[in-house]
Amino acid sequence: MVKYEMIVLPKIAIIGKEGLCTKEKNIVQDLWRQANSDFGDIADLGMKNADGSYVGFWGAMSDETMSFLPWTDGFSRGLYLAGVEVYEDTPVPDGWAKWVIPARKYLVTEVTPESYGETFETVIKRLIPDLGMKLAGAVCDFTEPATGRNKLFFPVE
Questions:
Q1: How many CB atoms lie within 10 A of CB 43?
Q2: pLDDT tens digit string along 90-126?
Q3: What CATH number should be reported for the domain holding residue 86?
Q4: Residues 145/53, Cβ–Cβ less than 8 Å
Q5: Fewest CB within 10 A of the end CB: N or C in the chain?
Q6: Cβ–Cβ contacts within 10 Å for residue 3, how many?
Q7: Cα dist. 95→36, 92, 117 in Å?
Q8: Once rounded to an integer, what is the mean pLDDT over residues 29-37?
């Protein structure tokens, strides 16, 4: 069984590289390459912990209407933003995008690159329904720089 925790996450802002992913062309890795190669442009904008490490890197997702609803076409079509968490009032440099994701309740689980697909499917198809909940929005990836841990955030209600 997938280990998870339930949290309420306040509204967060992310600046990153944005693009449309489809079943035919998943550009997630391309967006991360762009974000990483140009990171110097936004390095000073990222929120930091007291120890100087970044609060977090997000692979934020939304439907194409920017309503932060789940991806369509079997979770294969939607917008993706590869970026760093920032303060909401942070200005957006040219060539970058900023999303402000509303506060939500999330089911959060750790994931590895090897277990990503299986974990995603298990949480969507079994765990959320078994808990009597429903997916309320687009799932987001999170990497905690201080630990290197990767997590999936499933908005639920």
A1: 10
A2: 999 999 999 999 999 999 999 999 999 999 999 999 9
A3: 3.20.80.10
A4: yes
A5: N
A6: 7
A7: 13, 8, 30
A8: 98
